[in-house]
Design brief:
- It is a single chain.
- With 420 residues, the chain is mainly beta.
- It contains two helices and 34 strands.
- It has three domains: 100 residues, no CATH class; 122 residues, no CATH class; 151 residues, Jelly Rolls (Sandwich).
- The strands form five sheets. Strands 4-3-2-1-5-20-16-17-18-19 form a ten-stranded antiparallel β-sheet, with no helix packed on it. Strands 9-8-7-6-10-15-11-12-13-14 form a ten-stranded antiparallel β-sheet, with helices on one face. Strands 21, 23, 26, 28, 32 and 34 form a six-stranded antiparallel β-sheet that branches.
- Strand 18 and strand 19 form a beta hairpin.
Amino acid sequence: MRIGTAWMAVGICLSAAGGSACLSAAPPRRLVPAAPPDVRGEFVELSGEWKLTLNVEGNRSTWPHHRWLHWGALVENRFDSQVVLVDGSRLVGRLVAVSSTSMVIDQNRFDLVTVPRNKVAGIIVRPPVSPAARDRLEDWIERRGGRKAAVLRLIDGDELPGRDESEPELPDPLPLELVTLAWQAEGLASPIAVRLDKIAAIRWTPAMHRPAASSAGTLGLDDGSRLAVTRVVADRRRFECRLACGIVLKWARDLTEHLVYVRPPARHVRYLSDSPPVDHRHIPLLEQTVPYRLNRSADGTRLRSGGHLHEFGIGTFGRNRVVYNVPPGARALSVTVGIDAAGDRYSSVIFRIYVVGQDGTPRQAAASRKMRLRSSPQRLVVGLEGARQVVLIVDTSDWLDRRDVADWLDACWIMNRGGE
């Protein structure tokens, strides 16, 4: 009887949301405010001035943009096609049709979306399973290496420079899904029909230009879509946002249940990864030193920790020291620390933050608990009154320096209001 009851419970869980969630309610997402403590609340609405309203234990709580850093966490999609826009946004969904001026995407959350061709940097048709391989494919789209022609990459790794021979107008009626692409490869007399299931990715001619963190915010959806936005209004009646590349997405219906991450433009914060440190030292266990990386893990992959993707941060290995000068107007340093997903079960470190006063005397201002691969990331906030420098140190713990891939996530200076 107990076994039957257990299997019935599993069936209920799988049927609750297409097999991806259980009927038991997930805890509200975490809001990271400029000043601790963190708050958990359900999204209610977001105004055009980036004023966020949450439902916190049955009560409405409103947060002006200067009081919070981000809400929720980014998720990744490892299975579906992704259209990469020139501002770094990505829309997850199937490619329905392509013309010489536009393309239609069956986006998982927004239904059909028509996007101008000159706003598309590329498409990841078949995302690799490996996170590192996915990162390399995204880098291939973003880092053109001086090549101006469009390039089609097949799943076997071959590349075909050329152009797609699309019709001037979109087909009417639209097909359910694009099956083949007419591709005029360089050196061939006529176009060839390439099946989409044979394509890994396409890099088109528009180059990517990611907006600065201070000029655009980020929205993350539960299907893995990520939008670089300059303006957004989202509530129970409508969803409207303007992307940094100029595209406007607008629907007269509730899409707030699909929002999993919101970050306002960084007008009151400065991310440490926007500039290099003034000093860095890695003391290797043997001989090979490894440089720090900005907005990447020490392995060169995107920052992943605690089961989520992170936009900003500094990646190092263990036995590492990074030094930053405190900018004028900074009142606090906020950072979340954790072992990157590129680590392994032997990873074990302790993060420490030292503050150097005007007289040059250092003092330990904060330290994390012992962090391992499966440890939840920990937020550290340090006041900076009278500080001249901060020193970020990663100490090895149990296993010396064995795959200690350490991340300083979302590290930022909290600026005084007068310094915005």
